[in-house]
Amino acid sequence: QPSAVIGWLRMAPEVVLCETMKDTPYDYKADIWSLGITLIEMAEIEPPHHELNPMRVLLKIAKSDPPTLLAPSKWSVEFRDFLKTALDKNPETRPSAAQLLEHPFVSGVTSNKALRELVAEAKAEVMEEIEDGRDEGEEEDATDATSPLETHTQDPSEEPPALQPPSQPQDSANGPCSQPSRDRSLHATSPPDTVSSSDNDLAVPVTLRKPRPVSMEARIQAAEEKQGAGQARDLSPAAARSQKAGQSRPNSSALETLGGEKMANGGLELLVPAASDPSKRASDCGSMDYSPSLSADLSLNRETGSLSLKDSRLHNKTLKRTRKFVVDGVEVSITTSKIISEDEKKDEEMRFLRRQELRELRLLQKEEHRNQAQLSSKHELQLEQMLRRFEQETSAKKKFFDTELENLERQQKQQVEKMEQDHAVRRREEAKRIRLEQDRDYARFQEQLKLMKKEVKSEVEKLPRQQRKESMKQKMEEHSQKKQLLDRDFIAKQKEDLELAMKKLTAENKREICDKERQCLSRKQELLRDREAALWEMEEHQLQERHQLVKQQLKDQYFLQRHELLRKHEKEREQMQRYNQRMTEQLKARQQQEKARLPKIQRSEGKTRMAMYKKSLHINGAGSASEQREKIKQFSQQEEKRQKAERLQQQHKHETQMRDMVAQCDSNMTELQQLQNEKCHLLVEHETQKLKALDESHDQTLKEWREKLRPRKKALEEDLNQKKREQEMFFKLSEDAECPNPTTPSKAAKFFPYNSADAS
Question: Does the domain formed by 6-107 have CATH 3.80.30.20?
Answer without folding.
Answer: no
